[in-house]
UniProtKB/TrEMBL annotation:
This is Malate dehydrogenase (Oxaloacetate-decarboxylating). The active site is at residues 124, 196. SUPFAM superfamilies: Aminoacid dehydrogenase-like, N-terminal domain, NAD(P)-binding Rossmann-fold domains. Residues 101-282 form the Malic enzyme N-terminal domain. A divalent metal cation binds at residues 267-268, 291.
Length: 607
């Protein structure tokens, strides 16, 4: 990163000499700020623009630098929304929002909060993917910490420079190998780290001043980027092997050394690295991988709501997962762990009633080679797939057909999950075969984007005579329910943003030393309880809450995660109340909200 970019980044977190006390609405009663004139106007953390009061304009030398009128935050949001709507494409709207974020954090988050459902696809997926793909051409200024192998010896210095004066709650890091379905994006990975941090603030009230976006720019295998004269990243093929591991290990070591109480969120790492890095570090500090654990957690929540409709247990299911990349394997592992915990009893001392191998026997994983079975040979089974998920010769012979339809016919599954990006893979024949053997088939075509979905809900609904319990990875319109003219089936969207901010917030507030399986399962269970199908006791209602309720939902998830952290003995926050109701009030008071604080100029701080 250039020294100019570093100075800009540092300035966002300096200039506060005496922070005030935060109230329950996120407002700090009074903040003493030592920035003045252009310095405060160019600082997105403290800039209020036209909302600076008369008194503040006098104190901070802003009278002649601003138009005469004093706006409220609502006035500014209305103006910004008009400007947003004037942009003709989603990519231009994304660019506008990024520009606004670099000017005024409070206004940026207030605008997004008011129009959350409308703007989420623009500030995150799918539009953010287009912005990341064009990152080097759209670049304006630094938005995080960029770390590359040629400067590995200076990594600690750069890390400390980015964190100066701050105790972080959250670090989001990506090596950009598997970005949002568009693959390797090199240094553009900072965009996904930054976007995830934004969602933590929007949906969980994480203070943006206590969050850091990081990209581990270890090169790229994207030839288009390597040939691009304007590409801003490390212009080499991706670092692999021990050199890669040492680089990541040094970064994680710095987090442990200098920011030991923060949550480290891993995002969009490639399939060969994601699971093994999670396994390596998850017991060393509070770490979370959204592609693996977040996808698994939100899917588990939707399944728990669906299973409640069928009045069965998770351990009773036969589960086919079509597509065994990071998402599919993450779901399988999360469901397996939930089955084990479900069978283990309520007390920590209870002996688990089901082994990991027995729980894994409930799953049939399928990839491009068909059913993952021992007879495929090691060259066709990826190393990250555990042996317990591999079907043995005595149950599935090497000559036996093992395509999706074949597996459905033999297994008679109760649950069918798609994470393959194979559009239309859940055919009418496959779905009708499944529906022969189960009264309420649970079918989740989760692949994104919509054009890669394994089946459309209206088709699933038709092929099962309206009996399918559905969730998708992209938003779909409600579908008709046979025999009910006015009522429609609301298709749940398995949007990770319904759960990962709450999981993270629970870990942050409790200062959890690690993110345990039971913390994630507790969050999933709470999310399933908040689903309309559960709340309304209606089998045809949605299996997940509406995304517009994400902030309230994630707060409830966080409370459940804190309870689990306390039970697991990993919560280290000393000031957290013991009483549940007092703890809820305490957690609410910790939430950051986009409201303007009052400022007082501190001349002493300039010395």
């Amino acid at each position: 990163m250039s020294s100019t970019a570093q100075q800009h980044q540092q300035q966002q977190y300096r200039g506060v000499s005496a922070p005030g006390h935060q109230s329950s609405d996120g407002r700090e009663s009074m903040i003493k700020v030592s920035l003045r004139g252009p310095a405060i106007l160019n600082n997105p953390r403290f800039n209020k623009g036209s909302a600076f009061t008369r008194e503040e304009r006098d104190q901070f030398g802003l009278r002649g630098r601003l138009p005469y009128a004093v706006d409220s935050l609502d006035d500014q949001v209305a103006r910004a929304y008009q400007q947003y709507k004037s942009r003709e494409s989603d990519l231009l709207k994304n660019s506008f929002l990024q520009s606004l974020k670099s000017q005024n954090w409070t206004l940026f988050y207030a605008l997004l909060s008011k129009h959350l459902v409308e703007m989420f696809p623009v500030v995150y997926t799918p539009t953010e993917a287009d912005a990341i793909a064009d990152y080097s051409h759209l670049f304006r200024r630094s938005e995080g910490l960029y770390l590359s192998p040629p400067e590995v010896e200076k990594m600690e210095e750069d890390f400390l420079d980015a964190c100066e004066g701050r105790e972080l709650d959250l670090i989001v890091v990506s090596d950009a190998e598997a970005i949002l379905g568009i693959g390797d994006q090199g240094s553009g990975g900072i965009g996904i780290s930054s976007a995830k941090a934004v969602i933590y603030t929007l949906a969980a009230g994480v203070d943006p001043a206590k969050a850091l976006a990081v990209t581990l720019d270890v090169g790229t295998n994207n030839d288009d980027l390597l040939k691009d004269d304007l590409y801003l990243g490390y212009r080499e093929k991706r670092v692999r092997g021990q050199k890669y591991d040492d680089f990541v290990d040094k970064f994680v070591g710095l987090v442990k050394k200098h920011q030991p109480n923060c949550l480290l969120h891993f995002e969009d790492f490639g399939v060969t690295n994601a699971q093994r890095l999670l396994a390596r570090y998850r017991d060393q500090l509070s770490i979370f991988n959204d592609d693996i654990q977040g996808t698994g957690a939100v899917t588990l929540a939707a399944l728990q709501a669906a299973i409640a409709v069928t009045e069965t247990k998770l351990a009773d299911q036969k589960i086919i997962i079509y597509g065994s990349g990071s998402a599919g394997l993450g779901i399988a592992r999360q469901l397996r762990d939930a089955i084990i915990l479900e069978a283990g009893g309520d007390n920590d001392g209870d002996k688990k009633k089901m082994s990991s191998k027995e729980a894994a026997s409930k799953f049939w994983l399928i990839d491009q080679h068909g059913l993952i079975k021992k007879s495929l040979g090691k060259d066709k089974i990826r190393d990250e797939i555990e042996d317990e998920f591999i079907r043995q010769e005595d149950e599935w012979g090497s000559e036996e057909e093992s395509g999706l339809l074949d597996v459905v016919k033999k297994v008679k599954p109760t649950i069918l999950i798609g994470t393959s990006t194979h559009a239309g893979a859940f055919t009418e024949e496959v779905v009708k075969e499944m529906a022969k053997n189960v009264d309420r088939p649970i079918i989740f075509p989760l692949s994104n984007p919509t054009k890669k979905c394994e089946a459309r809900p209206e088709d699933l609904n038709k092929w099962t005579d309206g009996k399918a319990l559905m969730a998708t990875g992209s938003p779909f319109d409600p579908v008709d329910i046979p025999g009910q003219d006015k009522k429609k089936y609301i298709v749940a969207e398995c949007n990770n943003a319904l759960i990962y901010p709450g999981l993270g917030l629970g870990a942050i507030l409790s200062r959890a030393s690690k993110m345990t399986d039971s913390m994630i399962v507790a969050g999933s269970k709470r999310l399933s309880e908040l689903a309309p199908s559960s709340q309304q006791n209606d089998p045809d209602a949605s299996l997940l809450p509406d995304f517009g309720d994400a902030p309230e939902v994630n707060f409830e998830i966080a409370l459940a995660v804190i309870e689990a952290a306390l039970k697991d003995g990993v919560a280290t926050e000393k000031e957290m109340p013991e009483d549940a109701e007092e703890r809820k009030k305490w957690a609410k008071e910790k939430s950051w909200a986009p409201v303007y604080s009052e400022y007082e100029y501190d001349a002493e701080g300039m010395k």
